[in-house]
Predict the structure.
Amino acid sequence: MHYSLIYEEPLFRPPSEAYSLILQPTIGCSWNRCSFCEMYSTKKFRIRDIGELKEEIKAISEIQSDVKKVFLADGNALVLQHDYLVELLAELKNAFPKLIRVSAYALPKDLLAKTDDELSILREAGLKIIYVGIESGDDEVLQMVDKGETAATTIEGLVKAREAGIKCSVMILNGLGGKTYSRQHAENSAQVVNLVQPEYLSMLVLSFPHGIGHFKGRFKGNFEPCDISDLLQELKMFIDSTALEQTVFRSDHASNYLILKGILGRDKERILAEIEHTLENPQKAGLRPEWLRGL
Ligand code: SF4
């Protein structure tokens, strides 16, 4: 027997959800305004009928009942009302007896809209990890890219999730403030992660899918793009300012020019030395070959 889920594309998921069943209770992103993000710009945000979702879950469970992980798409499924999420998580638990975790992208404002008890209930019901694009911990940069969050809302939302026992995987965007705001972006982003102490942290690099002119037109400030040395300096400042206890750090996304992996703080000095080595080396040793061609 065969059942095919029909997705409303484009569809995105974190790399660590490669083997998860992906369901789409929401279409698009309820915010959809960040100037650097084109992921859901072709979609108008909407919530799907839970009855439809339940039918999909039932059909999948009849042919594949051993699902262990489920990712709820699209851009911020945590915006869903508490009752909807509880009903959905219960349905998943029922349909898939081997289910170990459910995950979703979330915005800090989605977390702040829920009570502490609601977040604990969601975790008990199976929501084990959320993915949050912090992007920057600097209020000026956040405002210039129209993120709709501040360092304070980000910290408050994420700490709330962690206190409810939900793991946090967060992303920072290298180069987001350009040359002008690089130092404050690096230092304040480190301050935010220091206060949150997320389980997972990745550094991605700002990219321009519609060209740099398009991005500049949407950036509410003076944007001077970083070159590779600027990006490496910024990364170094960021890592140097971190005071993390036990966070898995990755910079190994397709956008990253220098692959770095480790546990922060344990590997902080080694990671800093790797960045320094690349910065000092005239051939920029360690950079991915595709980036070297652009030097
Ligand atoms: S909140 Fe996330 S998904 Fe939505 S526009 Fe911003 S970066 Fe994109």
Summary: The domain at 131-295 is CATH 3.30.750.200 (Transcription Regulator spoIIAA).
